[in-house]
Amino acid sequence: MGRVAAIKMMVLPKINYLFSMIPTKPPQDWFRSLDSYMSKFLWKNKPPRISLKTLQKTKDKGGLELPNFQHYFLANRLQFISGWQKHTLLDEPWLDVEQALCNNLEISDLPFISSNIQRHECFKSINISSSLTAWWEFLKLTESSLIPCKRTPIWNNPDILQNNNMINFSDWSSKGIKYLEHILEGTEFISFDRLVTQYGINKKRFLEYQQIKSIIKKRFKPGQVELQTPPSVVQFLTLKTPKLLSKIYRMLSKTDESISLPIAKWEADLSVNFDQNFWSQICLKTFHLIRNPSLQLIQYKILHRVHYTGHRMFKMGFTSTNNCSHCQTNSPDNYIHALWFCPPVQKFWREICEDLSKCLKCNIPTSPLVCLLGSLDNVTTEKNIAHMVFTALCIAKKTVLMNWKNKNNLNSNQYRNYLLDYISLDTASATTSDQFLWAPLISSIT
């Protein structure tokens, strides 16, 4: 946890400064080397047990919100796209310069034109080209398509050509007809008579109306699919300052909605089947119900099943048998056995649950769902009690891990010593009201 925080505080601001000053995207090798250095730092030059991609996910998806520098580069560039959409005259000097480079195109229309815009003079601007390239990467990440959409411009659009030339009917543009949404309703073209009434188009422009219909039908085939603006694009366009960079980055971080936990293994071991929301809440409880970073890390590692068991060592070729050496049943020493079903561990968990139930006056079942995953919904709804139970169970898991290679040494006295040390540290930094929370456990220990 501390090393992730160090990267966020010490490395990220410096990298972000470079991204904000230099518009060109670094080569992929640069990003890969940066990720490699981060991985070595996080795992102290040892083989990583959790992938960097998982660590970069949000906490509710099984990650630690480790910075994803490629996403931060995109977020820095996408800030300019947002600025193009919201600028007013003389709002920012750089916007006026870039608008001048676009000639007869509106800079706010550039994101809604396909990659054919690369043939336009404006694409020679390094800031415009890098921002649009980042925008296309954003569309790819969010699986969005803007060609066509409601905001697709009609005039001076390299996608809408007549005899290989872009069209620009100035009379139509001056009346407010600029985008496909102005001439299309659903999958049908708005009638010419309605355009005359609604926008004040000259009735003599009927031939131009037919030309527009013919060109757009040929290019986009609007009768097949109704024009829509993708939800991700709509959400992006609503983002505003302050902290625009952080808002864009969070949006990029949420493009992958999958939860990076070994869910299938947990469900097979516990003979349960839960939805994604359950596992998302399990991930969040690690950070919401525990204050101590070292205990958070213990729970996080258990959820990801990173510890080496006898079964795993056997599969790696380091041991001659996969059976547990701490019990007489010759059971495979897999993860659920090592943490729960091994007889000395099972006895330890029964003692812990009985003690906690007695001290806190609530029923804490001896269940791996409660003790290992931390699912306390059926134990208590009171936040303070949930905090104490979750913390005490994490200290119990710490005790199991401290005796990982010799589980016969497990005993509740060692657990009580760890718990008392934690409570002493917690109460020293807590307010007076918080200190009374631990009173029942302190009295039982001492």
For the structure shown, list the relevant keywords.
two-stranded antiparallel sheet, two-stranded antiparallel ribbon, 54% helix, 3 domains, mainly alpha, 22 helices
Could you describe the 3D structure shown?
The protein is mainly alpha-helical and 446 residues long. The protein folds into three domains: 2-141, no CATH class; 161-220, no CATH class; 263-445, no CATH class. 54% of the residues lie in helices and 2% in strands. The chain contains 22 helices and four strands. Strands 1-2 form a two-stranded antiparallel ribbon. Strands 3-4 form a two-stranded antiparallel sheet. β3 (184-185) and β4 form a beta hairpin. The radius of gyration is 30 Å and the shape is elongated. This is Reverse transcriptase zinc-binding domain-containing protein.
Instruction: Look at the structure and give the mean pLDDT.
Output: 88
The secondary structure category is mainly alpha
Report the radius of gyration as a whole number of Å: 30 Å
- Molecular shape: elongated
Biggest sheet features? 2 strands, antiparallel
End-to-end CA span: 32 Å
Strand order of the largest sheet: 1-2
The count of helical stretches stands at 22
Question: Mind sketching the topology for me?
Answer:
Layout: H1 2-21, H2 28-42, H3 52-55, H4 69-86, H5 93-101, H6 126-141, E1 161-162, E2 165-166, H7 170-174, E3 184-185, E4 188-189, H8 192-199, H9 206-220, H10 231-238, H11 244-253, H12 263-270, H13 276-288, H14 293-303, H15 310-315, H16 335-341, H17 343-360, H18 368-371, H19 383-402, H20 412-428, H21 432-435, H22 439-445
Antiparallel strand pairs: 1-2, 3-4
Helix pairs in contact: 1-4, 4-6, 4-11, 14-19, 16-17, 17-19, 19-20
